[in-house]
């Protein structure tokens, strides 16, 4: 089974590594949205994903991306109030 950390890093990177299977189009789109929300700071995106992974282990990469995007959108909405 591929390492989820590595899979997510591949998803965030511009050039996926050949030694890991490709991620789904939906996951790639979510990762792109996540990077937009963190101003292309992949370290910040990874930190958010790792925090979510810590509290909710054994989920799919797509699920972690969805949760990260939702979390950032909630934060943006709260600031806009």
Give the SSE layout.
Layout: H1 4-12, H2 25-37, H3 42-55, H4 61-80
Helix pairs in contact: 2-4, 3-4
The strand count comes to: 0
Strand content: under 5%
Fraction in helix: 55-70%
Rg is 12 Å
Q: What's the tally of helices? A: 4
Largest sheet: none
**Sheet/helix structural class:** mainly alpha
Would you give an account of this structure?
With 81 residues, the protein is mainly alpha-helical. Helix content is 69%, strand content 0%. It has four helices and no strands. The chain has helices spanning 4-12, 25-37, 42-55, 61-80. α2 runs parallel beside α4 (61-80) and α3 (42-55) crosses α4 (61-80). It is globular. The termini are far apart. The model has no long low-confidence stretch (mean pLDDT 82).
From the structure above, extract its key features:
81 residues, mainly alpha, 4 helices
């Amino acid at each position: 089974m591929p390492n989820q950390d590595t899979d997510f890093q591949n998803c965030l990177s511009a050039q996926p590594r050949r030694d890991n299977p490709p991620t789904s189009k939906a996951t790639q789109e979510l990762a792109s949205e996540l990077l937009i929300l963190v101003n292309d700071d992949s370290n910040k995106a990874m930190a958010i994903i790792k925090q979510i992974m810590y509290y909710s282990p054994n989920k799919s990469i797509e699920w972690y991306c969805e949760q990260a995007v939702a979390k950032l959108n909630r934060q943006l909405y709260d600031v806009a109030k």
